[in-house]
């Protein structure tokens, strides 16, 4: 029996909430010290939406993504995917049948000697138990068509592909299991400008075609324009969250404002950011006070005493800052 | 008297030769750098921007091929012998790299590394002088004296890059070439390093800068003049503000448009190319574009573009 054509598959769009983080924290032990990667994350991702998690190196955004697909376990709190508490899943392959992770580096995360076919066949065989040659062919053909790669690619080895093509293979590998949720970690960082919009367009199309929820992890806030929601992370916490349009046009947290001020169109005109960019010290991950304090241009009395929590200050627009 | 340009590059061509074949990294690069200028070289991976820096430093050894002309204050850089190169490299033209923050000796304190460099190159005569000079250099890059007794692993990425800059400027070079010096750093640290370079230039501590980066925001922030490269060619060159607000080349237009928050997210269709380096993707390509590469023509004062849209 032949399987249904790929195009008819849709993620269960009846679920309005795809994934929920409940008070998720992650600590790492390093040389006798405890490093806080994530602290008290509460966040939900809707079915069929793209959420952009924006932040710099060390903000915890990759840890958040990895925890959400069961690649790591939280130290505290829990992640609920559809109705499943990931903490309680014993065999992680169960998670990976539903949730997939697209790694950042398309050069190091694919074996250069494998063919495109091999790469896509493996998750089908070992994760989904699809043994029939016929069905394998259908699914591989279908997913490659989705990412815009024709029959001529089937037998090509990974080493023959460009960065943009490898990125598409990575995305195809994630979508071939027909996941309900996919994390794309810096999907445009390693590829040329020319192909960035292509990859973003592809992710949007896959979301539209299949209703998959997608988390895009990025340090480049301009990419967030294709998302439905934005979560801005700093030092292990979400400091701002809201609908993308709203956050991009009314950034509230000084860190979000900084990220939005370092885009070319603003920088060419004047240098409004110079004073915002002075680094006053090392931010504290533990202890009291707001973790943005050492960099904050609008710090007030009291910021050093207590850490602000995420509050709704405009309709559905949340920020963790005492200025509001 | 007409001031002599600091640097004149004419028809620079670089071919990397390996056992498996050769690759043309630079096909035809010509530009001038005036004394006191801040030139940004913009391009994505494979554009050849780093190769320009390496060629200027004479860091591309045979069997690789370097052709064309590089004049530094009328001296022929490609013709220099070892002795002339020693007087030119680092003393006249110094370079910092993205990795220069990782190139410090992990087993030597920063003070020791400075001492070795300054004594080896004869900038300081004895250890006491070297330490005194190192302290002054650290102050210039806004680092406390205590850093001298620290080891590279104790410094943050931003601090290591500051040390790299201090070392690069220790012989008072006329030109600093910076190749992606802030790429591995986070936004705030990145801009604090850019501020440092801007400040050093304003103070006259660095006179001229060539800044190589793939990052548009960085160029928008630091450069005065911008040169856009693609596949070994210079495709556009002009004052930064002009290039960003009125880009002429379809490639530059694409880059600038893509960097906008409200951007249209243009997508380009790839086809068989040839001639112009952008012909395989250019939405405005004409028949002639596939036959030959256009050369740079001046469209308005100081704004040059290599594109047949603006005449053949």
Count of discrete alpha- or pi-helical segments spanning 4 or more residues of chain B: 9
Q: Helicity of chain B, in percent?
A: 25-40%
CATH class of the largest domain in chain A: Alpha Beta
Strand share of the residues of chain A? 15-25%
Q: Low-confidence parts of chain B lasting 5 or more residues at pLDDT below 50?
A: none
Count of structural domains of chain B: 1
* Strand proportion of chain B: 15-25%
Quaternary form: heterodimer
Largest sheet, strands/sense/barrel of chain A? 8 strands, mixed
- How many individual helices of chain A? 9
Count structural domains of chain A.
2
Walk me through the structure.
The complex is a heterodimer of chains A (324) and B (312). Chain A is 27% helix and 23% strand. Chain A has two domains: 17-249, P-loop containing nucleotide triphosphate hydrolases (Rossmann fold); 252-324, no CATH class. Chain A has nine helices and twelve strands. The longest helix of chain A is centred in the middle third of the chain and has 18 residues, at 193-210. In chain A, the strands form two sheets. Chain A has an eight-stranded mixed β-sheet, with helices on both faces. Chain A has a four-stranded antiparallel β-sheet with strand order 2-1-4-5, covered by helices on one side. Chain B is of the alpha/beta class. In chain B, 29% of the residues lie in helices and 24% in strands. In chain B, α3 crosses α4 (127-140) and α4 (127-140) crosses α5. Chain B starts with 6 loop residues before the first strand and ends in a 7-residue tail after the last strand. Chain B contains nine helices and twelve strands. The chains are: A alpha/beta (324), B alpha/beta (312). Chain A binds chain B through residues 56-58, 192-194, 196-198, 200-201, 219, 221-222, 225-226, 248, 258-260, 262-265, 267-268, 271, 273-274, 277-279, 295, and chain B through 44-46, 158, 186-189, 191-192, 195, 216-217, 219-221, 240-241, 244-245, 254-256, 258-263, 265-268, 281.
């Amino acid at each position: 029996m032949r399987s249904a054509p790929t195009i008819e598959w849709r993620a269960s769009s009846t679920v309005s909430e795809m994934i929920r983080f409940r008070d998720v924290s992650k600590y790492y032990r390093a040389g006798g010290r405890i490093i806080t990667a994530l602290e008290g994350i509460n966040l939900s991702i809707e079915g069929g939406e793209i959420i952009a998690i924006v932040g710099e190196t060390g903000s915890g955004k990759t840890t958040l993504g990895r925890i959400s697909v069961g690649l790591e376990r939280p130290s505290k709190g829990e992640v609920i995917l559809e109705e499943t508490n990931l903490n309680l899943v014993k065999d992680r392959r169960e998670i990976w049948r539903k949730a997939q992770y697209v790694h950042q580096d398309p050069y190091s995360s694919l074996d250069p000697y494998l063919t495109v076919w091999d790469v896509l066949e493996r998750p089908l065989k070992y994760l989904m138990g699809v043994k029939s040659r016929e069905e394998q062919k259908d699914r591989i053909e279908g997913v490659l068509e989705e990412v815009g790669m024709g029959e001529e690619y089937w037998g090509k080895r990974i080493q023959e592909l460009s960065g943009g093509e490898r990125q598409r293979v990575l995305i195809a590998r994630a979508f071939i299991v027909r996941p309900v949720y996919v994390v794309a970690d810096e999907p445009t960082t390693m590829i040329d400008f020319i192909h960035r919009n292509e990859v973003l367009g592809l992710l949007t199309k896959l979301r539209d075609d299949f209703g998959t929820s997608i988390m895009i992890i990025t340090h480049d806030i301009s990419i967030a324009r294709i998302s439905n929601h934005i979560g801005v992370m700093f030092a292990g916490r979400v400091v701002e969250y809201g609908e993308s349009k709203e956050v991009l046009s009314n950034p509230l947290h000084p860190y979000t404002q900084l990220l939005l001020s370092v885009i070319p169109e603003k920088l060419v005109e004047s240098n409004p950011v110079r004073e915002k960019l002075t680094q006053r010290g090392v931010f504290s991950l533990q202890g009291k006070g707001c973790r943005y304090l050492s960099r904050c241009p609008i710090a007030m009395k009291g910021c050093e005493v207590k850490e602000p929590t995420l509050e709704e200050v405009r309709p559905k627009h949340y920020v963790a800052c005492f200025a509001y | 008297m007409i001031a002599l340009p600091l640097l004149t590059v004419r028809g620079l061509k670089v071919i990397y030769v390996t056992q498996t074949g050769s690759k043309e990294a630079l096909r035809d690069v010509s530009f001038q750098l005036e004394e006191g200028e801040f030139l940004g070289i913009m391009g994505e991976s494979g554009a050849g921007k780093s190769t320009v820096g390496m060629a200027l430093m004479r860091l591309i050894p045979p069997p690789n091929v370097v052709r064309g002309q590089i004049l530094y204050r009328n001296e022929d850089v490609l013709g220099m012998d070892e002795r002339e190169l020693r007087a030119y490299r680092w003393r006249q033209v110094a370079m910092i790299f993205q990795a220069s923050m990782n190139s410090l000796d992990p087993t030597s304190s920063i003070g020791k590394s400075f001492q070795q460099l300054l004594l080896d190159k004869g900038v300081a005569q004895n250890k006491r002088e070297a330490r005194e000079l190192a302290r002054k250099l650290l102050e210039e890059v806004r680092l406390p004296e205590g850093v001298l007794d620290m080891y590279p692993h104790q410094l943050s990425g931003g601090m290591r890059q500051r040390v790299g800059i201090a070392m690069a400027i220790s012989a008072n070079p006329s030109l600093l070439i910076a190749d992606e010096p802030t790429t591995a750093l986070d936004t705030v640290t990145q801009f604090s390093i850019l501020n440092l370079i801007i400040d050093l230039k304003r103070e006259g501590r660095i006179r001229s800068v060539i800044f190589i980066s793939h990052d548009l925001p960085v160029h928008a922030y630091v450069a005065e003049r911008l040169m856009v490269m693609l596949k070994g060619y210079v495709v556009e060159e002009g004052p930064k503000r002009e290039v960003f607000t009125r880009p002429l080349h379809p490639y530059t237009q694409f880059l600038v448009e893509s960097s906008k928050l409200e951007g249209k997210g243009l997508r380009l269709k790839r086809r068989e190319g040839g001639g112009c380096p952008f012909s395989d993707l250019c939405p405005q390509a004409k028949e002639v574009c596939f036959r030959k590469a256009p050369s740079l023509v001046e469209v308005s004062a100081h704004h040059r573009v290599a594109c047949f849209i603006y005449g053949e």
